[in-house]
Each structure stands twice: as structure tokens, then as C-alpha cells.
Amino acid sequence: VTARMLLGLIERLLYRIGKSEAALRRSEAEVRAILDGVVDAIFIHDNRTGDIIDVNLAACRMFGYDREHFRGLRVEDVSSGVEPYTQRGALELIGRIIEEKEVMAEWQARRKDGSWFWAEINGRIGMVGDQERLLVTVRDISKRKDAAERVRKLTRAVDQSPVSIIITDTEGRIEYVNPATCRLTGYEADE
Questions:
Q1: Which of 91, 124, 145, 155 would bridge 102 by S-S if both were Cys, CB 3.0 to 4.6 A apart?
Q2: How far apart are CA 160 and CA 121, in angstroms?
Q3: For residue range 59-76, what is the model confidence (pLDDT) as tens digits?
Q4: Mean of the pLDDT values across residues 101-126?
Q5: 3-state secondary structure the chain
Q6: CB of 35 closer than 8 Å to CB of 53
């Protein structure tokens, strides 16, 4: 009788353990689905060494590595390698994140094929399970940087043009004049 009671108890415990393991697997799958559904790349780093522990699918697409390959990489492997975008620069940035709690910065990142791109990174320290980790989101801002560079060049060309240029709003109020207009009219730009 005691053996049957003990066997019944063991069976109930094994059933509960099985249910707990299934719930844990479901929970892990749900978290992975959420991470993989995010458009920005997400990196989970060891906050002491900067080593990559895990990434989402967006990181795989953005950088060209599969998830398993990422786990063997260091930040320097996905950085341009030009100062300050090196392992040493990354460790300095990690120090800032630990000190300031959250840091946003621009970074020159490198894909598996060797091409590099500008990235906006947002890093903070957070708990993953019972471990303190560095959580980093990465967004490719190459198009934004290219557009800003084109605007800068156009602005420089307009400012250096010997031709008078006046920009007004739809009601004819002057919004901008270039230096040639100031020389021609004798007015200052702020006038």
C-alpha cells in the first residue's frame, strides 16, 4: 500500500513537472516571438565583456549572420573597426551605459559581407532571467545620414551661390535669404 501511495505521489509530481516544463517552453516561445517581431535589431550582451549572448531575427537580417554565429562574435566583429568604433570603444560605451543607465549613440556597424552602415544604438542595463545584461537596440540610419548630408551640401551650395536666393512661405513672408541677397540689398539675414 505504501509503495502504491509513493508511486502515485511520484506520478503526480512528474505530471506537475511536465506541465511546468511545457508552460516554461510556451513562455520562452512567446518571448522569442515578441523579440523576433520587433523591427529593430536587439542584442543581449554580457555587460562585463560586451560579448554577444543573443539576438533577434532583425539583427540576423541587418547584419547577415545567423543566430548561432552571432553568439560567437564580439562587438568588434560587427563594428567598422575605425576609432572609436572598435572593441575598446564599445567597452567605453558600455561603461557609460552602466554609469548613466541608458545611452543613445550613433555607431558605425559592419555586416558579414564587410559593408558598413550607420546605426543608432540605444543601450541600457536590464535583467534577463536572474542575470544583469546589456540590452541594445540597433536601427539602421544610413538613409537618414545620407539625406542629412545631401541637405548639408545643398545648404552650403545655396549659401555660397553668387546669385541672390530668397525663400518665402505661401503668403510671401521671407523665411530665408542667402549671403548674396544680403550683399545685394544691404539688409542682414535676420532683418
A1: 124
A2: 35
A3: 999 999 999 999 889 899
A4: 96
A5: CHHHHHHHHHHHHHHHHHHHHHHHHHHHHHHHHHHHHCCCEEEEEECCCCCEEEECHHHHHHHCCCHHHHCCCCHHHHECCCCCCCHHHHHHHHHHHHHHCEEEEEEEEECCCCCEEEEEEEEEEEEECCEEEEEEEEEECHHHHHHHHHHHHHHHHHHHCCCCCEEECCCCCEEEECHHHHHHHCCCCCC
A6: no
